[in-house]
Design goal:
- By secondary structure, the protein is of the alpha/beta class.
- The chain has 9 helices and 12 strands.
- It has 2 domains: 120 residues, 3-Layer(aba) Sandwich (Rossmann fold); 131 residues, Winged helix-like DNA-binding domain superfamily/Winged helix DNA-binding domain (Arc Repressor Mutant, subunit A), CATH 1.10.10.10.
């Protein structure tokens, strides 16, 4: 069961120990976080250059460049999401170096998973990512602490991913949210833009939330995205989502992905070439 206060955010986990990476990623996904995993500094910089993250968990002793250098380059590139550094070393000098390179918090291995979750919540509160424990849109109420939803007093059974999507729409109530924005915050790197996965989940939410009620809250603007709210979208672009809409939207997403491919490759090349006089990366010692 998801722990209280877990928001729908996307996290970059940088850890070269497969056992630790799998354990942490699995636990975070069970808390409704979307998680991308990188096993070395180069992959971490590349992922950060092409994806929008809300927070990063960064191990210090990863293959080149090390966690200190990755943190420094992320800050140098202008990225300001919170960074929690992990290390097996408890030396004061290591903690000071990590904080001085731009990290926001430090956690020493081994650690209790619940402490990791508590530190993440604190970092997200500090960065303004968390919202009040209760979100209301018309007669729809979300309890973000318990991760439950009810409409008109009727409890709505939701899967973890359905709840994450609904909460993200609720936080952006009254605004049209596009597929790309949804995929960046609710799904992780395994999301395939060529599929109609988002449309399928939106239709599931509509059946659970709107069909039993006379007033629909989930609206689709074809070619633009989705909106949660009472006011229906006006104009020729307004439509009720169907599975067939998914093919159209997936096609546009695929075209957008192809159009961005050249800029992503440039970003990858830039991230893999360190600035002048980079630090020598260290190998992790178990």
């Amino acid at each position: 069961m998801a722990e209280k206060g877990a928001p729908a955010v996307r996290i970059l986990l940088v850890e070269d120990d497969p056992r630790i990476a799998n354990f942490v990623a699995k636990g975070l996904r069970e808390q409704a976080y979307a998680v991308d995993v990188a096993a070395n500094g180069e992959d971490a910089l590349y992922q950060a250059s092409i994806n929008a993250y809300d927070l990063a968990i960064l191990d210090v002793m990863i293959p080149a460049p090390d966690g200190f250098e990755v943190c420094r380059r992320l800050r140098q590139s202008g990225l300001r999401f919170p960074i929690l550094m992990l290390t097996a070393r408890d030396a004061t000098d290591d903690r000071v170096q990590g904080l001085d390179t731009g990290a926001d918090d430090y956690l020493t291995k081994p650690f209790e998973f619940r402490e990791l979750l508590a530190r993440l919540r604190a970092l997200l509160r500090r960065s303004g990512e968390l919202r009040p424990n209760r979100i209301e849109v018309e007669d729809l109420a979300l309890d973000t602490a318990a991760q439950t939803a009810a409409r008109g007093g009727r409890q709505i059974p939701l899967t973890t991913k359905e709840y994450a999507l609904l909460e993200y729409l609720a936080r952006n109530a009254g605004r049209v949210v596009g597929r790309e924005e949804i995929s960046e915050h609710v799904w992780d790197e395994t999301f395939d833009p060529f599929t109609n996965t988002i449309e399928v989940y939106v239709n599931r939410l509509r059946r659970k939330i709107d069909e039993p009620s006379a007033k629909p809250l989930i609206h689709t603007r074809r070619g633009a995205g989705y909106m949660l709210g009472a006011a229906e979208l006006s104009g020729a672009g307004a439509a009720t989502a169907t599975v067939s809409d998914g093919a159209e939207s997936a096609g546009m997403a695929a075209a957008s992905t192809q159009a961005r491919s050249q800029s992503r490759e440039k970003a990858k090349a830039a991230s893999l070439h360190p600035p002048a006089n980079p630090r020598t990366a260290g190998k992790k010692h178990v």
